[in-house]
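Step 1: inspect the first sequence and its tokens.
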Amino acid sequence: MLAEFRTFIARGNVLDLAVAVIIGAAFATITKSLTDDIIMPVVGAIFGGFDFSNYFIILGDIPPDFKGSTASYADLKAAGVALFGWGQFLTVLINFLILAFIIFLIVRQAGKIIHEPEQAPAAESEDVVLLREIRDLLKK
């Protein structure tokens, strides 16, 4: 059973998948930072606030023993209040679109590199053509 497991793990596809998952997770943190720390503050400033994820609608009752801020999405969510967190959803959606666009660019570039058209052979000089004709005549 151990030998079968080693054979399974040694397959190229499994190793490629493992590497892709690890690199994808690391890349996702970079994209999340790009969205949260650079793009969303600008979008939030345009729409009148700096923390775009704090745009929400309270759907349920706030518990009487609630100690946090009623303007904080994280505090209300931690207290179990039903919320319509459209700002948080928008942040995640923009994060996804950025990640998808960057992956599209990477795949497009990789496709160009892998499928580069082969260059046509350079035109042969007259000397080479003449030498080939002489060779062919000598063979006959």
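Step 2: inspect the second sequence and its tokens, then contrast the two.
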Amino acid sequence: MFKKMLAGLAGAIALNLLHEILRKNFDNVPHINEVGEEALKKAAGFTALEITDPDKLYAATLAGDIISNAIYYGTTATNHNFTSGIAAGIGAVVLPQKIGLNDQPVAENNKKKLMTIGYYIFGAMVTKFIYDKIK
């Protein structure tokens, strides 16, 4: 199980690196971080936790994203790399609007939708590659 989680962590980091590099250097690309930040703000609203500093909100969202994706990839992508990436990507595009979040950062147009799905496929494939090398 440790090797699966380690591979999942590698895939989650790869996903986030890809996202951050493209987000900071190109226009009309997904901003998955914005959906995560909105979700974290809403969730924090039900607690005594307040995150008002934008840098802290970004850091907390990034940490949560890496942890959750590492667990997801470690439990799914080590066996079903491509399909787990497709499922996560479709979820990232479809679920925000369904749970009351702004989906524009990931679903504003077909390019963003396909890129978002592609990011998650990339993370899943990195996970599977690393897992196959270390198992």
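Step 3: confirm your contrast with the notes below.
The mean pLDDT is 92. The CA atoms of residues 89 and 114 lie 8 Å apart.
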